[in-house]
Design goal:
This protein is mostly beta strands. The chain has two domains: about 25-105, no CATH class; about 110-240, no CATH class. It is about 10% helix and about 40% strand. The chain contains two helices and 13 strands, in the order H-E-E-E-E-E-E-E-H-E-E-E-E-E-E. The strands form three sheets. It has a six-stranded antiparallel sheet, with no helix packed on it. It has a four-stranded antiparallel sheet with strand order 1-7-6-5, with no helix packed on it. It has a three-stranded antiparallel sheet with strand order 2-3-4, with no helix packed on it. A hairpin with a 4-residue loop joins strand 2 (about 45-50) and strand 3 (about 55-60). This is DUF1684 domain-containing protein. InterPro entries: DUF1684. It holds the Pfam family DUF1684.
């Protein structure tokens, strides 16, 4: 399989994942829970939170959701929709509806054509211990805290650059960054790059730089890149600003 064919296979799987009927493109609402039980339009029962957990009372039964800050949410099904409960500072609920307009109109993600020059080998430098790192969010006044296990160092056009990495999936790294294309041809707030260190080396394939959910929907609370993760050159590779953002 050629380099371009391999990238196209990855892109097809990426867009198939985005088109999940209960995925990020299916979001139709976001509500922050209050300390007093209350109903939300179109949802069964009443919802509330305290300092420790979120609660849902429906048909005389109460469910309790104690979740990790900035971590994965929990979900409950209500008819044709799924209600996600997550902790982002306080607790929130979001509705995933397979009939969502954004999902219905999804036609893929515009991307730069893949180029081998954007596959760059770097060095992974783990910290002595993971460093809790606070970053901002696309939602004003909200912050996230993630574990940063190390940094990635690489050279581009003769200059050295360093990016702080967060823990990613399956033991890999998740690198949030902006660059000179951000807000021009790519989504302004951030893009994400997955990488896996092997024997102290790491391959950064910017052709696979992806948009975070906030690039597609206003109902996401995505983190911003950590301080210093802005690249002063144009990374003309990976996903561009989604069609949904015009």
């Amino acid at each position: 399989m050629s380099f371009a064919e391999d990238w196209q296979t990855w892109k097809t799987e990426r867009e198939k994942s985005l088109a999940d009927p209960y995925g990020w493109l299916a979001l139709v609402s976001l509500d922050w829970l209050e300390t007093t039980p209350r109903a939300y339009e179109g949802l069964p029962g009443v919802w509330w939170q305290d300092d420790d957990a979120a609660y849902w009372q429906n048909d005389g039964e109460t469910q309790r959701f104690e979740l990790v800050q900035s971590g994965p949410g929990a979900r409950v099904t209500a008819g044709d929709v799924e209600i996600e409960i997550a902790r982002r500072g306080g607790y929130l609920i979001r509705v995933h509806d397979p009939k969502a307009e954004v999902l219905r109109n999804f036609r893929g993600v515009p991307s730069y054509e893949p180029q081998q020059q954007w596959v760059i080998e770097g060095v992974y430098e783990p910290f002595d211990a993971p460093i809790p790192t606070t970053v901002g969010a696309v939602v004003e006044g909200l912050s996230h805290v993630y574990e940063a296990p190390g940094r990635v160092r690489f050279t581009y056009n003769g200059a050295e650059h360093t990016l702080t990495a967060f823990n990613g999936r399956n033991g890999g790294l998740n690198i949030l960054f902006t660059d000179a294309t951000s807000g021009v041809t790519t989504y302004a707030a951030n893009r994400s790059l997955a990488a896996t260190p092997v024997d102290g080396k790491v391959v950064l394939d910017f052709n696979r730089a992806t948009n975070l959910p906030c690039a597609f929907t206003d109902f996401a609370t995505c983190p911003l890149p950590p301080a210093g993760n802005h690249l002063p050159f144009a990374v003309e590779a990976g996903e561009k600003t989604p069609y949904e953002r015009g």
